[in-house]
Amino acid sequence: MPIYTNIEDLRRHYARRTPKMFYDYAESGSWTEQTFRENTSDFQHIHLKQRVAVDMAGRTTRSQMIGEDVAMPVALAPVGLTGMQSADGEIKAARAAEAFGVPYTLSTMSICSIEDVAEHTTKPFWFQVYTLKDDDFMRRLFERAKAANCSAIVVTVDLQVLGQRHKDIKNGLSAPPKLTARSIADMATKIPWGLEMLRTKRRSFGNIVGHAKGVSDPSSLSTWTAEAFDVSLDWKRIAQFKEWWGGKLIVKGIMAPEDARRAAEIGADAIIVSNHGGRQLDGAVSSIRMLPAIMDAVGDDVEVHLDSGIRSGQDVLKALALGAKGTYIGRAYTYGLGAAGEAGVTRALEIIHKELDVTMALCGETDVKNLGEHNLYVPRGFDDPTVKL
Ligand SMILES: Cc1cc2nc3c(=O)[nH]c(=O)nc-3n(C[C@H](O)[C@H](O)[C@H](O)COP(=O)(O)O)c2cc1C
């Protein structure tokens, strides 16, 4: 394996190995991509407080997310079409997460099915559901997740309609990829990717094809979204999912203090402050900037997690120091997967872990659970999105 010292190294290698259609799918935001960009750049506005002459021996990044022990509070976020970034990608990512000791979240829009991932792992993983109109299909998804021993459901609430991603439309994104002169010409330059794909039977939406009724074109994400997703979603419906599922439930996609309160009121076990990695409402504030107001709104009433924009262990540290109990990475591990399969996901986790550990040490902290605002210099007005940074 090449020497990857940071997540950007993995991204560069991933870009070379993967067909443009799938690289663009991951490496993009909606419309102007402002939120996609600010998710990462806003982390840079926060500085770290260096401490010296502190005993740094015996450091630990061990913590808990929704009561589960984690080697570090960094879960793998649900990422659709992971199995198109690398053959059997969901299985590879889940195995890497399991070996590392962090939670893996399987997307509804995965290529490998829930059953497939369960068969190839030994510990419970988390399952992400989109909020679909079809009650039968939703109930069956919960039953399948239960049968697969999933320990939590992540309900994504920020995608009743799909944010327009220009590149996906131009590339004709689908799984399996449609064979056009352009896609064939591109794939011809991605031989190792293609050979791996030829060897697997998993090339379309494993949780949907053969399970959902009335889906005219399951290969197309946008068609399926428009047909099946519940535009009339409300909090009553989310509470109903909690009842149907009967286990731990995480609400993903919270960006307003009022919504955070509603999630706490319906008894969510955790919320994820997330703007879907800048893929939904372009122009939304970065999630790291929304975190302080959401922490103020919910206090200890619900566990708060964060994703969107994390590309390093330092970003993780900043989110934890601002109050998040856990974080997720989406693209950071997808780059690793596309660059080097399961070993690449492991490498992404190792990179983030090492950055978190060394940064903790240089900030004079030995326990990830003790991080707080005392470790940071947060610019005045950071928590007020009307203030230009
Ligand atoms: C390629 C890609 C596919 C995604 N698919 C899903 C999905 O199926 N379900 C979901 O809830 N979120 C999905 N997300 C959003 C992620 O779960 C997560 O919120 C986001 O990636 C975090 O931002 P980051 O990529 O900057 O870490 C996806 C993100 C990416 C990049």
Automatic annotation (TrEMBL):
Transmembrane segments: none annotated. The active site is at 276 (proton acceptor). It holds the Pfam family FMN_dh. CDD domains: alpha_hydroxyacid_oxid_FMN. It comes from the Bacteria. Its cofactor is FMN. The keyword Protein biosynthesis does not apply. Its EC number is 1.1.2.3. PROSITE patterns: FMN_HYDROXY_ACID_DH_1, FMN_HYDROXY_ACID_DH_2. PANTHER family: 2-HYDROXYACID OXIDASE 1 (PTHR10578:SF107), S -2-HYDROXY-ACID OXIDASE-RELATED (PTHR10578). Belongs to the FMN-dependent alpha-hydroxy acid dehydrogenase family. This is Alpha-hydroxy-acid oxidizing enzyme. The gene is lldD.
